[in-house]
Design brief:
Elements (H helix, E strand, L loop, with lengths): L3 H14 L7 E7 L3 H13 L3 E7 L3 H8 L2 H5 L3 H9 L2 E6 L12 H10 L1 H13 L3 E6 L3 H6 L4 H11 L7 H19 L4 E6 L2 E6 L6 E3 L4 E2 L3 E4 L7 E6 L3 E3 L2 E3 L2 E6 L2 E6 L4 H8 L8 E7 L11 H4 L6 E6 L14 E6 L6 E4 L2 E5 L2 E2 L3
Length: 368
């Protein structure tokens, strides 16, 4: 029997996040490990008059392709993807597969080449999202693989995931609207700031944000959500940051990451574990050594690290800074095949200054 919370999530995704309406062409993509949610979303999309179809992944396909494809096969642009990007109205990505570590043994150079080959498709997606002609949302269905990464039982992880989405509340949409209103106030205050300085254990990093847009993330593009972000000025980052949380990318975990920036560029990088992978990613392209995003996590229903960026970057009281591509709507202009969110636990011993004045201390905004 399907969990009633899955049906509740499907209704929220269709009617709040994606706002599917009669006549919309809807692509639902994900691993078939998430079939319960895919089925529930498909049914709900039909009920509102949409035209949904499924793009389903089976185990091991990505690993096979990245490990064995030729350069020509990497470069090939699917006519199906091209057709979708011309006419698709709504796109739902559901994450949660069988083995989050399946890409660990793949040569990182090939992984980088694969990501670079996907840029034309992803740029067309970002462009349409920014223009408002395509609505996208990414979410996660709780699977054993993700539960293991989080060091939880499946039941415990399911409870964690659904609580993070406020699905335990009587009216989740009302809860998300309330968070949106709170975040709008944060955005107004941050929009007046030109320079942010992050100070904490082995961290003293200054970043320029003047003239950039702060974005209120309230469950309509990621679900669950709960952050405000912007695109830092590309040549502004100066100083050092240490990430106490592991940095996770493509199933690989890099521990105790320390980055030093000068004039916006990473000039030194170290890690307690995964140093070679970190350096391979930094060498993806020129943009990979610059910041593409700076954000504050605001979802107080998420308080523990789970090795899944969808949740970890939203932990209430934390910050995350992504190296690589900017999100265009933020005003950022950095381009890269990489976008790697690294979460900094600012809930204890950290102070963030805005134009020289404390605005966030030990995980709390001082102006709320």
């Amino acid at each position: 029997m399907i969990d009633t919370r899955v049906e509740k999530l499907a209704r929220l995704l269709v009617n709040y996040s994606l706002r599917i309406k009669k006549g919309d062409w809807v692509r639902i993509q994900g691993a078939y490990a998430s079939e319960n949610l895919m089925r529930a979303v498909f049914r709900e999309a039909l009920s509102v008059g949409g035209h949904p179809y499924l793009d389903v992944e089976i185990p091991g396909i990505k690993r096979i392709f990245v490990s064995e494809a030729s350069d020509a096969q990497f470069a090939f642009q699917s006519p199906g993807d091209k057709a979708d990007m011309r006419g698709l109205d709504k796109l739902l990505s559901i994450w949660g597969g069988w083995n989050s570590k399946e890409m660990t043994g793949v040569n990182p150079v090939r992984s980088t080449k694969f990501k670079a080959s996907r840029q034309p498709y992803l740029q067309s997606v970002f462009k349409r999202i920014t223009k408002g002609s395509l609505r996208w949302c990414g979410t996660l269905y709780p699977t054993l693989s993700s539960a293991q990464d989080a060091e939880m039982s499946l039941e415990e992880y399911e409870n964690f995931v659904f609580r993070a989405g406020k699905l335990h509340k009587r009216n989740p949409v009302a809860e998300w609207k309330a968070l949106s209103k709170r975040q709008e106030g944060i955005v107004r205050r941050l929009s007046k700031i030109k320079t942010l300085r992050i100070v904490g254990k082995e961290t003293d990093l200054t970043v320029g944000v003047a003239g950039r847009n702060w974005i209120n993330c309230d469950g309509q593009m990621n679900f669950p959500d709960g952050e405000v972000f912007t695109g830092p000025i590309e040549n502004s980052a100066d100083g050092t940051i240490r990430y106490a949380f592991p940095a996770v990318y493509d199933g690989r975990e890099v521990q105790d990451v320390r980055l030093t920036f000068r004039k916006g560029r990473v000039i030194d990088a170290s890690a307690g574990k995964g140093r070679e992978f970190l350096h391979a990613m930094l060498n993806t392209d020129e943009g990979a050594r610059r910041l593409g995003e700076l954000a504050f996590g605001t979802n107080d229903s998420i308080q523990r690290f789970t090795r899944n960026t969808l949740f970890d970057e939203k932990i209430g009281g934390t910050m995350h800074l992504a190296i690589g591509a900017s999100i265009p709507e933020s005003g950022g202009t950095n381009k890269s095949a990489l976008h790697w969110d690294m979460v900094c636990d600012t809930r204890k011993g950290f102070t963030i200054y805005g134009d020289g004045r404390p605005i966030h201390k030990n995980g709390k905004f001082l102006f709320e």
